[in-house]
Amino acid sequence: MARRDENNNIDTNAKRDINHSDLHYFIKSKKYTLPKYSFILRSKKRLMSIGEFLKLLEKNNIKNMSINLLREWDNKELLPAYRVEKGMIRTESRYYIMEHLDIAMEIVKLKSYGLEIREIENIIFENKSFEILFLSKIIKNKELFMKMKDIIKNIHHIEDELVSSICTEVKKIFNINDNDFKDTFNDKYLNTILNDYKKSNLNTDEASILLLSLILLSLYNSYDNNCFDRKKFSKQFYSIISENKNHT
Length: 248
Description:
Helix content is 58%, strand content 12%. The chain is an alpha+beta fold.
């Protein structure tokens, strides 16, 4: 069955059939290829059954997976499998290669941020910005926006105790895992978001909420071991504000 786009129109050219065509995908904006089945036969890459692939996922600490979920992801073309006919009655079986593992790990990570299948497809197969899509979800939540507005007002009265309270709220809002966040959110990461923001087509309200989100994340990133690094926050804050001026 042909998939439909965001406007519910049938897109007959969008089918991800790796039995007949190479599939290009992106992880952290780097392009990779899942080769078509004929290449697998020539290159003698090892095909894994769906059960073997599930064991590989478990071995790599990818939890809460099941054969039914893999079948669902294949049917929805989120994680397409090779379909190979076997036996006298030519029953189709699903097969995977090692490259599927990287895609599965990326899907699980993106799902942990609350992204939906269509949003994950945009990132993995269309190389859309994760940061823009993720923060756009926040933009759509008006109640969350109001909560963030209340929090940001307090930044003008920064004290260590107050910052700690704000950071606790930020952690809840963004569902932050401390170790993952500290490893990811740095100057380079911030610049990546700002660069994506500069190239985006957000309206004024959306841009304002995105900037607010970035300021809150920068605040959280500047608070560590019960100590608020004002210099670090100021640097990131003015970088965000400066980019806003350039954008507008």
